[in-house]
Structure formats: structure tokens, C-alpha cells
Amino acid sequence: MNVLVIHGPNLNLLGSREPDVYGRTTLEDINALLAREAQALGIELRTIQSNAEGELVTAIQEAAGWADVLIINPAAYTHTSVAIRDAIAAVDVPAIEVHLSNVHAREDFRRRSYIAPVAVGQIAGFGADSYRLALQAAQGLASRKADKA
Ligand code: CA2
What we know:
Blueprint: E1 2-7, H1 19-22, H2 27-41, E2 44-49, H3 53-63, E3 69-73, H4 82-90, E4 95-99, E5 121-124, H5 129-148
Parallel strand pairs: 1-2, 1-3, 3-4, 4-5
Helix pairs in contact: 2-5, 3-4
The structure holds ligand CA2.
């Protein structure tokens, strides 16, 4: 099974700024943790990060040829991007929305997600563990799909 993890804008700054909100774990640390976990679960993993909305849209479109599941932290685009929402809705790949912080316990504008209605589900508030939990959820999704086939 193949999983593409997409990190949105500013997540490349993790670990260096706002540690009180996002912790001290860097994006490299998160990707390394995911790579280890994926190997243990027998999952083929690719990760990308971009600050550009169009690049995220293209990555979602291209994932359709390879990924069985998408894990996406759209970061600030969660709350603004119809383009990312439409791309997820257009591809036949289940998506899991991930956030490091509990977006529902922060400013009001972070409670609205354009992505949640087209995602299978959302995991938020567990720091780097949100991604680990998403990987486990991805495996569950893929094995249920295989059982049905
Ligand atoms: O909690 C999350 O994972 C978020 O997706 C992070 C986004 C935020 O806009 C969402 O509402 C929730 C922000 C990512 C920016 O990350 C930074 C990391 C370090 C320093 C500055 C920003």
C-alpha cells in the first residue's frame, strides 16, 4: 500500500518558531518518524512539503496515479482553499486531514475547514502523533478496501 503525506505552508518552519504552539519537533523529525512507522507497517511512503497552493493541488492530482491514501496537513490553506478541497474531491483517493494543534480549541477561524467535508476524517491536537495516528488510520482504510475487493 502506498501513502502520500502532504505538508502545507510554513510547516518547514516547525521546530524553529512558535514552539509553545507547535512543539520543538522539526518537519524532518516528523518525516523520519513516519518513515520508521511506515516501514514497520509495510507501507510505501512519500512525503512532500510546499508553501504554494498550486503545487499542493498538483501533488494531489498526481497522487491519483500512485497513492492508495493521502494524509494531508493543509496548514493555513485548511481554512481558505477551495482549490485544495476541489482537488481532493476530484481524485479517487481517500484523504485524512491532519493537524498538529487542536484547531477547534484555538481562534474561531481555525474551526472552519474547507477540507473536512471531502476527507474521510480529521485527526488534530496530538502533535507529531497526529501523523502517526493518521498512518494507522490509512492502513485501516486500505485493509477494509482490500477486504471488500
Ligand atoms: O495545527 C496544525 O497542524 C495547523 O495545520 C498548522 C497551521 C495552522 O495555520 C493551522 O490552523 C493548524 C500553521 C502551520 C505553520 O507552522 C508553523 C510552524 C512554526 C512556526 C510558524 C508556523
